[in-house]
Amino acid sequence: MRDHLNTIRKDPLLLVLWLALICFAVIWIAPFAFIVFTSLKGNGEIMSTGPFALPTELRPDNYDVAWNRGGFSRSFFNSVFVSAVKVPLGIALSAIAAYALAKMPGRFNRLVFLLIVFGTMIPFQVMLAPIFTLVNKMGLVDSYAGLILPYLAFGVPFQVFILHSFFRGVPKELSEAALIDGAGHFTIFRRIFLPISLPILAALFILDFVATWNEFAMALVIMQDQSKWTLPLGLMSFQGQFSNEYGQLNAAIVITVLPAVLVYLIFQRYFVSGLAAGAVKG
Amino acid sequence: MSALFRKMEDRPWLFLAPAVIVYAVFALWPMVDVTIVSFQKWNGLDANRQFVGLANYQYIFLQDPVFWTAFINTVIWTFLSLIFPPAIGLALAIGLNREIAGRSALRAVFYLPVIIAPIAVATMWRWMYDPFFGLFAQTLTEWGLPVPDFLGQKDTALYYVFVAYVWQQVGFSMVLFLAGLQSVDRSLVEAAQIDGAGRWKIFRHVTVPAIMPTITIVLVLSLIHSLKAFDIVYGLTGGGPAQSTQMLALWAFSQSMKAFDFGRGGAVSVVLLVITVAIVIPYLRWSMSREVHE
Prior knowledge:
Chain B: The chain crosses the membrane at residues 12-32, 75-96, 108-128, 157-181, 202-226, 265-284. Chain B: It is found in: Cell membrane. The complex is a heterodimer of chains A (282) and B (294). Chain A has helices spanning 2-10, 13-39, 43-48, 61-69, 72-103, 109-119, 128-137, 144-168, 172-180, 185-196, 198-214, 217-222, 231-241, 246-281. Chain A is mainly α. In chain A, helix 4 (61-69) packs across helix 14 and helix 5 runs antiparallel to helix 11 (198-214). Chain A contains 14 helices and no strands. Chain B is mostly helical and 294 residues long. Helices cover 73% and strands 1% of the residues of chain B. Chain B has helices at residues 2-8, 12-37, 55-63, 65-96, 103-111, 118-128, 135-142, 157-181, 186-194, 199-227, 231-236, 248-258, 262-293; strands spanning 40-41, 50-51. Chain B has a two-stranded antiparallel ribbon with strand order 1-2. In chain B, strand 1 and strand 2 form a beta hairpin. The longest helix of chain B has 32 residues, at 65-96. The two termini of chain B are 41 Å apart.
């Protein structure tokens, strides 16, 4: 604290800057406060009190009612299941492919790498209909596999790209010594490369979890049966049906958003380093 | 199992196969298929897809008024996305790049909206824009100001949707700029200070050149990201009122999945895809050449 005071004394402009940042942060956080407050109020109170008035009579039952009315136990489970399968599987596929591209000589490595890098930039929002057509032809509409497979396809490029640039930076000596000792590539990958890339894997894991948890458009197209909805679909439908139940609607928002927020707050460090690694190096 | 692993040894294609197959089938093929279907008439169900040449393109370019609304909205949206989130993000990053109290908490606050589902952002802002009890309506009423019909006015709805988008996106630019600012040479800044250069001069001649690559990255990512705006528009207005907030990605989806005209939807997709690729390819060439130089 004394350090901070010293720098401020040296540079009074810093105080102005700091106050400006605080004001801005208050504006930025205000929507969250508004949502949480509303989620704990009854409709009568919402209509009669100011937006940032603390709830006088707490209504935690909003959460209960929203959970049941919106069928959130089903969609919560679906979201957890899809993320739990997709995220580790996707990272495993990407890691092993990135290793091959970086460390195993192959004739088509360059071509495959270029194709994959191209994919990091292509938005699937553009191709929802043909993806639906394909999944439908395979008979996978309304199935977990039908959603997870396209998720994997659009997650692979970024992850391969990041891991490839990391693996390439690993000194040759490390793997060559093992190769001479008779270890195969798979062993080297598992015993040497995986352990040293744990921090970057963690970053990818968290980024991918949040992306999967939040995904809406693809799920909208593929999961048409309510029993297969993920949370974002559940929330959207809740908004359509109960838009006048303000307290419950906001409780539903909190339910949807909270897991990603918690993961972010707990693993913040990895988030920022992961993003920075991906963007600034690339 | 171990026999399988032994077989995998020294066969790179076995390592690559799972990722490449999934990627080729579910990401590359749809890109090809959407191009094919854009030259066909198809309702998504019939067994045969009838070839119609350029009819779908002719229709969307010449007869479909919504296509041009969506096109212009996408251009406006993209243009604004290149200005506001990056500019605010850069300002915040410069502020947060100093040793100030509560720096990491502030950074977390600005980044928080980024990790929230866009569809939840849409739901949140739809409630905040509620013309009677929403955050803005109540605040404006308290101040004795008139309450506009935020999302119900044809001329302005798009901009109100965009405000929600800015709120969500700023943190993303900010984090990238914060990382980029690490590459500014401290000793160069100090040397400039000793030479008596003012803040603006230092920013202009030391900071900006150093973060030029980051600026490019942020602008390209913002651009790509803005082209695929879907969830937030879908959730806030669904393209209305009277198609006034329609966007290309959403229009392609609506034509195919709601109107069951996969041909026309495909044509809209191809337009968007061509624009995206026209931006992506030069960018990738640039970033690959950077990698080689490093």
